[in-house]
Amino acid sequence: MGNNLEITKLEQNIKDFYSKSFSVNDIDDSSYLRVDTPFFDRHNDSLIIYAKKIGDQYIITDGGYILDDLETDGIYISRSKKRKAILKSQINSYSVQLNEENNELFVINKNIEDFAQSQNLLIQAMLFVNDMFVLSSNTVGEIFKSDVERFFEENNIRTFEDPNFVGTSGMTHKFDFSIAGLRRKDIPDKLIKVMNSPRNEYYAKALATDVRLTKPVLKNTTNFYIIINDSKDDIDSKIINLFNSENITPIPFSERNDFVEELAE
């Protein structure tokens, strides 16, 4: 009974967070609405999205902010066919599209009832791109997630890519990989996210939130992992402590081979 009460409190706390942490305002001389979100990018700036009704459709967009911001760091995804293809493939898994003319990441839907869901997927995509494409300007090629995928393949670890779960808030939360368990042998399922920037505390908090909102809706025992790219920088100890406190196993990519047996189980 007590546990049920705690779950009820947690669910209400999550609902309160989503209802109070978003601010919606009109933009002067514009038909767009501005939505300030409680999520932060790598600069510690609040993510802002915009919404507009066009005909019988609703468009939700980042206004080009994420890709424009990467370009200020010399990262021009549009100049590399390979990077652009990777970008489109990744954001498509969030049901997000790219406007190549103005760098906008956007979602279109026809029902106002789907607005919150589409908004949530766009925010997740923005956070993912903001983290995953922070590469040195002379690096041409794949993203860190591709390195992780190769690691699984080389070790014959059979994964399923981009599983989605509807969490306790009613929002969809996407993971990068899942590994099925085996209940009759008490082997838990595994859900995995990847993190490219080892010192991006705000993205780490967003990943931990995804895990926290997903845990209560899973039917099977599940272990959670975050694989972190530490090839160019050490992982912030605050990020390690955060994941440990949420019962998420952080895996530095440099130590990935130490986890092969556990992940392959």
Outline the structure in words.
The protein starts with a helix and ends with a helix. The strands form 3 sheets. Strands 1-2-3-4-6-5 form a 6-stranded antiparallel β-sheet. With 265 residues, the protein is α+β, with helices and mostly antiparallel strands. The chain is globular, with a radius of gyration of 19 Å. It has helices at 2-20, 65-72, 81-92, 115-132, 144-154, 201-214, 237-245, 260-264; strands spanning 23-26, 33-40, 46-54, 57-61, 97-99, 104-109, 160-161, 164-166, 172-174, 177-179, 189-195, 222-228, 248-252. The chain has 8 helices and 13 strands. A hairpin with a 4-residue loop joins strand 5 and strand 6. Helix 6 packs parallel to helix 7.
Spell out the key features of this protein.
265 residues, alpha+beta, 6-stranded antiparallel beta sheet, 5-stranded mixed beta sheet, 8 helices, 36% helix, 25% strand, globular
**Helix and strand pattern:** HEEEEHHEEHHEEEEEHEHEH
Query: What's the helical proportion of residues?
Result: 25-40%
Strand content: 15-25%
DSSP E strands, number: 13
* Radius of gyration from the alpha-carbon trace, in angstroms: 19 Å
Please tally the helical runs, counting DSSP H or I stretches of 4 or more residues: 8
Q: Name the average pLDDT.
A: 85
Q: Layout of helices and strands, plus pairs?
A:
Layout: H1 2-20, E1 23-26, E2 33-40, E3 46-54, E4 57-61, H2 65-72, H3 81-92, E5 97-99, E6 104-109, H4 115-132, H5 144-154, E7 160-161, E8 164-166, E9 172-174, E10 177-179, E11 189-195, H6 201-214, E12 222-228, H7 237-245, E13 248-252, H8 260-264
Helix pairs in contact: 6-7
